[in-house]
Design brief:
With about 400 residues, the chain is mainly β. The protein is about 10% helix and about 60% strand. It is built from 4 helices and 24 strands. Strands 9, 10, 11, 12, 13, 14, 15 and 16 form an 8-stranded antiparallel beta sheet that branches.
Length: about 400
């Protein structure tokens, strides 16, 4: 009797297991594939390396728990070079729930172009109940583009402040402060730089020394440097400081170069400030001698220029005049010109002579009303070799009592 009862119970338990197993098997057979969202970003970019951030969101739509295992990511550059090969830790996902799997991988491109990175993710999702196990393989591909980062690489923003310093017979030395701003989100460097000064026609009239530098992301550097500009640059309508060079960036071992050119207009200084603002100004003086001739009164006017600079000066368009002042009004008696410009070399003194003849009748009609003759010398002073000039006048008085 007991044996029959035991056999009956065994049959009942077996049937129950078969029924449960069959139901589970049917349930497992209808295992729904999980919903998967993958995000891959390249962050923390430095000249030597970067970080490949991988985020995998898996949503389990089933009424039972599933496990994720054997997750692996392989990322390659366009030429097939393996940038990353790493495993990602898996885990269990409760029924009707989701879980995020992450991994940060340090990568370097080793000179390869990283515009497009292809990542292949593999793994298994499955469940196991009693003696029944069901597994679904995972295979995904994700393309990550760095084209925007690379193609949006912007040239540096350059501005300059330039001061004119010392004169020589051919050029002026300059001092310059050059500010360079890096508008990018990664470190850059500038190299192979040529700084030249040109006119509006493109003619080179000077140079400024510029050296290469590294610039941190979205920061500026200041470069103090020197240069020179030819005196003939003052003949131009516009003086331009032109900088050309190579701006480069290194992104996790990949080099990207960009040619750049920047221009800054140099304000042409007022020649009057350059010539007349020195501690030792140019000294101009006149002397006169009067003599009587058959033609009338002859006045010899001697003009002397003492050049205290280290650059040659020229006095052009020289006009010597003899005047008489009556009741605060100036009346011209006679004048003459010096046809050639008076050039005075640096650190020397030079002079010129001009002769003015006034007929007796003109002189006698005016002289009784005044005691002095006004001698005036006018001209345009400039630096030898340039066109801009400044107007100067030197005045002196001579006694005319000998004519009475």
């Amino acid at each position: 009797m007991r044996k029959k009862l035991f056999k009956l119970l065994l049959i009942i338990v077996t049937i129950i297991y078969i029924l449960i197993g069959g139901l589970l098997f049917i349930n497992i057979q209808v295992l729904e594939a999980p919903e998967i969202i993958v995000e891959i970003d390249v962050t923390n970019i430095s000249p030597e390396e970067a970080t490949l951030q991988t985020k995998i969101d898996i949503d389990n739509p089933n009424s039972f728990d599933v496990s994720v295992k054997n997750l692996k990511i392989i990322t390659t550059a366009p030429d097939g070079y393996i940038v990353a090969d790493a495993e990602i830790a898996g885990g269990n996902i409760p029924s009707n729930d989701k879980k995020t799997f992450r991994n940060n991988i340090t990568i370097a491109f080793s000179g390869r172009s990283p515009e497009l990175l292809t990542s292949k993710i593999t793994g298994d999702v499955g469940m196991s109940v009693l003696f029944i196990e069901k597994t679904i393989p995972l295979k995904m591909g994700v393309v990550t583009s760095l084209e925007k980062v690379i193609n949006d690489f912007a040239a540096p923003v350059i501005s300059a402040t330039i001061d004119f310093n010392e004169f020589t017979t051919e050029k002026i030395t300059l001092s310059a402060i050059i500010d360079v701003y890096n508008p990018n989100s990664f470190e850059m460097y500038i190299d192979d730089i040529a700084g030249k000064i040109i006119t509006e026609s493109g003619k080179k009239v000077g140079e400024i020394d510029v050296i290469g530098k590294k610039i941190l992301p979205e920061e500026s550097i200041r470069i103090n440097t020197t240069g020179w500009v030819l005196l003939e640059a003052f003949n131009a309508k516009k003086i331009i400081f032109n900088v050309k060079g190579i701006a480069g960036v290194k992104i996790a071992g990949f080099d990207k170069n960009l040619s750049f050119s920047a221009e800054t207009i140099i304000n042409i200084p007022d020649l009057e400030d350059l010539i007349l603002s020195k501690d030792s100004p140019v000294q101009l003086s006149i002397k006169t001698k009067n003599k009587l001739t058959f033609k009338g009164v002859v006045t010899d006017v001697y003009l002397e220029v003492k050049n205290t600079y280290n650059v040659d000066l020229e006095l052009r368009d020289i006009i010597c005049s003899l005047n008489i002042v009556i009741n605060n009004e100036t009346h011209l008696l006679g004048e003459n010109t010096i046809d050639e410009g008076l050039i005075t070399e640096a650190g020397t003194t030079n002079s010129a002579r001009c002769e003015i003849t006034v007929p007796f009748l003109k002189m006698l009609s005016k002289v009784p009303q005044s005691d002095w003759l006004l001698v005036s010398v006018t001209g345009r002073m400039t630096i030898k070799g340039i066109d801009p000039s400044i107007y100067v006048e030197i005045r002196g008085f001579t006694d005319i009592h000998l004519l009475r």
